[in-house]
Design brief:
heterodimer; A: about 260 residues; 2 domains; six-stranded antiparallel sheet; four-stranded antiparallel sheet; 6 helices; about 30% strand; B: about 325 residues; alpha+beta; 8 helices; about 35% helix
């Protein structure tokens, strides 16, 4: 303290004034900076809320019945080829309580050279023409559905079901489209070194994108499973001949929300 | 004689020298005293400043007016929030991103006019909570402005920030949506969750849209508050319209006219701001997915092809619902 006094005494008046000014400035800044920062930042109020998760999409059978009533077995191939009429099935997508957009994917193996076509559907009566009949497994009711005619159209138009991974280059050889075995979809599903799936077992992924909810209770669809008559007449005679032999295809129908 | 004169001069000189050194000493003493005084004053003022700051800090947690909590203030105003009510259901998530200098808005349940005084986050009865917001929801949140001068002009900046909660090793972190990769979502929040200055529950009409200044902030500027020390209640109304048509078309309200003994139906707009339609037309990217200003969409264009544009609005709702789970609403107040 003495030393400080002595050194202060040694200072000229001018130097003393400078020391005082410097001290005042330092103290002022030390106090002013944090206080000012607080002044400029704190007039703030916050709250946090949650965005409700959109309801899960659900797939149902006709009339909104449980999906187990959506039954695809026992397709009479010979009848399809003979009549030229596809086999039709009704299913629905439930989007919860709000309108939304979703994609429908039909992933199927290619054992049987089926064709798949999808239409929007609506309830009909037995007197309507070209109806698809839905009956649940227990056979307790009968519901009728018809293909919807979009606004501005006069006839039903099939939805754009796009194959994401179809190899069309060998249609004349195999009598059907097969899934590619060298693309990213194949890479996602199979390990090139260890897996060697049978070519008809690799699924084709077909999608319709950005379908809008028309009815929050159920959007109904008619799935037509047909036979490619063009291929059967194109010189390929073995695999696309319609025979009711025990062949199996696996068909996955999924619906997911459109987010991109 | 000469020598006497000489002696006297010498004596006088010595006396002069003595008095000069005394004067110097005296002056030094005075300077020292002045220095000590100044130092003491300085220390005193520093202490006063520190104490006044501390007093100011502590005053923030004091209750000064019934039903309000003094929380944040500038020298010319105080912003208070309700003391009744709760921090909100998602308080734990708020804690993860909370700005320590900010206060937490208090949420209440349904008011006497049937409006929700919260943002889908009011914790009401134990075990019964609101669980967030979705299209079709609306409500309001309340704060109080108390001018500390006769009149003050204030700016209110609102930000609605999207977050997602990520849990790793039982530790939850809040990840803010990315301004670059999620720029579309940020846009949709601006057009889908709207903030208004006023709402008339009788006509179900909003007014005073709080518009965006940047993609992240909305500004309510130059609001004048008068009446020194008199709290003014301010409500901010938020709405997430279920359909685009709700905003661009009128809605009908039927009331019973007892004098005429019949029901009278009147059409009212969603928002009676004269520039509300222009705002939608000028910012289609806030409302509809995949529609930009270059599309030059007008309200008439939308109505003429509503299936498409209404669908684009719903699609944007879908994107918000899929990519954002939490919303942080902040309001920052400053003098205009």
């Amino acid at each position: 303290m003495k030393k400080v006094k002595e050194s202060l005494d040694k200072l000229t008046t001018m130097q003393k004034i400078e020391v005082i000014i410097a001290s005042i400035t330092t103290v002022f800044l030390m106090i002013a900076v944090p206080v000012y920062a607080w002044f400029s930042n704190t007039s703030k109020v916050e709250t946090m809320t949650k965005v409700k998760e959109p309801a899960n999409l659900d797939i149902c059978a006709g009339d909104g019945d449980s999906v187990e009533n959506f039954e695809l077995s026992n397709i009479d191939l010979e009848d399809i080829q003979k009549t030229g009429q596809p086999k039709c099935y009704v299913f629905g997508v439930v989007t919860g309580n709000l309108k939304t957009f979703y994609d429908i994917q039909i992933a199927h193996t290619t054992n049987i050279p089926f064709t798949y076509t999808l239409y929007r559907a609506e309830e009909a009566t037995s007197s309507d023409t070209n109806v698809v009949i839905y009956e649940p497994l227990d056979g307790t009711k009968t519901k009728y559905y018809k293909r919807s005619v979009e606004e501005g159209k006069t006839t039903p138009v099939a939805l754009p079901l796009v194959d994401l991974n179809a190899d069309t280059s060998k249609v004349s050889h195999y009598g059907r489209k097969l899934a590619k075995t060298d693309d990213r979809f194949y890479g996602l599903g199979y390990d090139n070194e260890n897996d060697d799936p049978e070519i008809y077992a690799v699924p084709i992924y077909s999608q319709v994108q950005e379908l809008e909810t028309y009815d929050v209770d159920h959007d109904f669809y008619i799935l037509e499973i047909g036979w490619d008559q063009t291929n059967s007449g194109s010189g390929f005679s073995k695999w696309n001949a319609a025979k009711n032999i025990k062949e199996t295809d696996i068909i996955y129908i999924t619906a997911s929300r459109t987010t991109e | 004689m000469i020598s006497e004169v000489g002696q006297m001069n010498e004596k006088n000189n010595i006396n002069l020298a003595d008095s000069a050194s005394d004067e110097l000493l005296e002056r030094k003493k005075m300077q020292k005293a002045a220095l000590i005084k100044m130092g003491a004053m300085l220390v005193l003022s520093a202490i006063m400043l520190i104490f006044s700051s501390i007093a100011w800090f502590t005053s923030n947690s004091e209750n000064t007016v019934n039903g309000m909590k003094v929380s944040v203030k500038g020298p010319e105003y105080e912003i208070s929030v309700l003391t009744s009510g709760t921090n909100g259901v998602y308080d734990d998530y708020l804690d993860l991103v909370h700005d320590d200098t900010a206060i937490v808005w208090k949420m209440k349940g349904t008011d006497s006019s049937g409006l929700e005084q919260n943002m889908g986050n009011y914790y009401s009865i134990e075990g019964v909570t609101d669980d967030g917001i979705e299209p079709g929801d609306s409500g309001y949140i309340t704060f109080f402005v108390t001018p500390r001068v006769d009149s003050v002009d204030l700016d209110f900046t609102f930000e609605l920030l999207g977050y997602n909660a990520e849990t790793d090793n039982n530790e939850t972190t809040m990840v803010q949506i990315d301004p670059t990769n999620d720029a579309d979502v940020i846009n949709y929040l601006n057009g889908h969750i709207l903030l208004f200055e006023d709402y008339d529950p009788d006509t179900e009409t909003y007014s005073g849209l709080i518009k965006n200044t940047t993609s992240l902030s909305r500004l309510l500027s130059n609001k004048t508050y008068t009446g020194k020390d008199t709290p003014v209640e301010v409500n901010i109304y938020w709405v997430w319209a279920e359909n685009l048509s709700d905003m661009i078309n009128t809605h009908e309200i039927t009331v019973r006219d007892d004098e005429q003994d019949k029901d009278i139906t009147t059409a009212y707009p969603f928002c009676d701001d004269s520039d509300f339609a222009t705002y939608i037309e000028g910012h289609p990217q806030y409302f509809m997915k995949g529609v930009t200003t270059t599309d030059n969409v007008t309200i008439s264009t939308i109505n003429n092809n509503y299936q498409y544009y209404g669908g684009r609005y719903n699609l944007a709702d879908n994107v918000i619902g899929a990519r954002v789970r939490f919303l942080l609403l902040t309001m920052t107040v400053s003098v205009s």
